[in-house]
Amino acid sequence: MIPKELLKKVRQIQIRTSRTVNDVLAGQYHSAFRGRGMEFEEVSPYQFGDDVRLIDWNVSARYGEPFIKKFREERELTVMLVVDMSASGLFGSRDQFKVDVATELCAVLAFSAIRSNDKAGLILFTDRVEKYVPAKKGTLHVLRIIRELLYHRPRGRGTDITEALNFLNRVTVRKSVCFLVSDFLCEDFEPALRVARRRHDLIPIAITDPRELELPDVGFIALEDPETGRHALVDTSSRKLRRRYADQAQRALALREQMFRRMDTAVIDIRTDRPYVEPLARFFRKREARR
């Protein structure tokens, strides 16, 4: 039995994200992602301006006039949402936790997929793969994906991106569009990322909270690493400590950006203190322009 409060949340996310898909991202998702290829549809008489390379010489010889081949895009894609559910997602210094932002983002992407008649699937992971929802079409299926994102209670606390990507490669036979949604607070996943990128159209979405980049000056505060459980008492009034914290955060970001640049992989950077729609739309526009 699904609690009424959960159903209410699912419905709220459906309404909020559907409006985003229809009003802001309408057409951009479809234009940004190619189908699997071009499929022959029919032949038709040659018209002035048609590409002569498309002339079907066999049919033209048979009827004594030029005919051209027409093709249509094999549109159907499989979109896999690979989502980090580790304990660090339960952090947010503003209105939403990182995991809440991830849920809305995934809802937008899943609704965009089914609007284009594509399939959407879900992989939830921590330091292990915790949930797999095979890709399907339809609004009811997207609502199930949202429900899993809201309702799932992770067993693990840490992050293992390598295990998640290895699982993705095992369960998806065909090339898919894979959105990897994480805060990327882990190490040593570059080799697995390279393998997955060769097999799939891999798009990392990095979610960051502003307090992960700099500390406020509020005196002594108790900090906890959500993935390891370690505690520390920190004096944030120390300018030296705040600067060291910010420098370390910027170094980690720079290393991550260098890794993605080495693989020529565009990252969608999302902040919990800013709307996610514009970075997502900007990525779709750039992707369409590259096509």
Task: From the structure above, extract its key features.
291 residues; alpha/beta; Rossmann fold; two-stranded antiparallel ribbon; 6-stranded mixed β-sheet; 2 domains
Number of strands: 10
What's the CATH H-level superfamily name of the largest domain? Answer: von Willebrand factor, type A domain
Taking the sheet with the most strands, its summary is: 6 strands, mixed
CATH architecture of the largest domain: 3-Layer(aba) Sandwich
Classify the beta-strand content into a percent band: 15-25%
Strand order of the largest sheet: 5-4-3-6-7-10
Map the helices and strands.
Blueprint: H1 4-23, H2 28-32, E1 37-45, H3 57-63, E2 67-74, E3 78-84, H4 98-115, E4 119-125, E5 129-136, H5 139-151, H6 161-171, E6 177-182, H7 190-199, E7 201-208, E8 220-224, E9 231-235, H8 239-262, E10 268-271, H9 277-290
Parallel strand pairs: 3-4, 3-6, 6-7, 7-10
Antiparallel strand pairs: 1-2, 4-5, 8-9
Helix pairs in contact: 1-4, 1-5, 4-5, 6-7
Explain what this protein looks like in three dimensions.
The chain is an alpha/beta fold and 291 residues long. It has helices at residues 4-23, 28-32, 57-63, 98-115, 139-151, 161-171, 190-199, 239-262, 277-290, and strands at residues 37-45, 67-74, 78-84, 119-125, 129-136, 177-182, 201-208, 220-224, 231-235, 268-271. The strands form 3 sheets. The protein has a 6-stranded mixed sheet, with helices on both faces. The chain has a two-stranded antiparallel sheet with strand order 1-2. A hairpin with a 3-residue loop joins strand 4 and strand 5. The protein folds into 2 domains: 4-31 and 75-290, Rossmann fold; 36-74, no CATH class. The protein has 9 helices and 10 strands.
